[in-house]
Design goal:
This protein is α/β, with parallel strands linked by helices. It has eleven helices and ten strands. Strands 4-3-1-2-9-10 form a six-stranded parallel beta sheet, sandwiched between helices. The structure holds D-glutamic acid (DGL). D-glutamic acid binds next to α3.
Length: 266
């Protein structure tokens, strides 16, 4: 048993979708969330920059004596998970493997779509992970760079979201997918529009739930679950507190989180 907190980090606030699922799956666990709101988005940057930023976040959380690290960002998980694992003295889980595994288990015709940031799609990480499990999987991957700002502005119900979804999903209309990975923390917020465009026969997978489930299993196997009766403690650290932080937090947490955000220096 280990009552230390789980460290969760993301380029910004999208990783709160993962925190929400972790709280559901592991209600006794304390969590420290670190969002690099001063430097989001990462998805438009190159590998070196993403790695440098991600290792700074890793060091910060390690200093806070966490027992486990959750990389709640597709872009970071796709780019530099190995470097984070090398640096970290505690176990690390990213969001790509759990979502890739669920997609392989879900697809019947072995034709899977992946949408994500430019960095995630360019990395080929989802394709690699799925093919490790089943090498005959065919993957169709496209970046959707406008989704992140549209969602952060709260425009999910606006016509602009519908136009962006129609435009980015056009290449998927004739390739007979039966499964699509929403490979970015933000995209579940556009789930209904994406589902409508892709049709009800396409199963949409996002990484929040499978990552929380995989984390639970691994904590159990490693004997790291918190079994004390004390109330869990939640901390929400941000590198910048922009004017829209509160509304973006509410979008991703789908309501008020169990703690107030605090600004920190890395
Ligand atoms: N959190 C990032 C991801 O899941 C999206 C935002 C960004 O580009 O940094 O890929």
């Amino acid at each position: 048993m280990d009552s230390r907190a789980i460290g969760v980090f993301d380029s910004g606030l999208g990783g709160l979708t993962v925190v929400k699922q972790i709280i559901k799956a592991l209600p006794s666990e304390s969590i420290i969330y670190l969002g690099d709101t001063a430097r989001v988005p990462y998805g438009t940057r190159d590998r070196d920059t993403i790695t440098k930023f991600a290792l700074e976040l890793t060091k910060y959380l390690i200093k806070h004596d966490v027992k486990y690290l959750v990389v709640a960002c597709n872009t970071i998980s796709a780019t530099c998970l190995e470097e984070i694992e090398e640096l970290s003295p505690v176990p690390v889980i990213g969001v790509i493997k759990p979502a890739a595994k669920l997609a392989v288990e879900t697809t019947k015709n072995k034709r899977v779509g992946v949408i994500g940031t430019r960095a995630t799609v360019h990395s080929g990480a989802y394709t690699r992970e799925m093919r490790k499990i089943k090498d005959s999987i065919e993957v169709f991957a496209e970046p959707c760079p406008l989704f992140v700002p549209i969602i952060e502005e709260g425009l999910m119900q606006h016509q602009i979201a519908e136009i962006a979804v129609a435009e980015y999903l056009l290449p998927y209309q004739d390739n007979d997918l039966d499964t699509m990975i929403l490979g970015c923390t933000h995209y579940p917020m556009l789930r209904d529009l994406i589902q409508k465009k892709m049709g009800s026969s396409v199963k949409l997978i996002d990484s929040a739930k499978p990552t929380a489930q995989a984390l639970k299993l691994d904590l159990k196997e490693r004997g790291l679950l918190n079994s004390s009766d004390e109330q869990p403690v939640y901390k929400l650290y941000l590198t910048d507190t922009p004017l829209i932080a509160k509304s973006v937090i509410n979008i991703f947490f789908e309501g008020d989180p169990p703690t107030e955000a605090r600004k920190i220096e890395l």
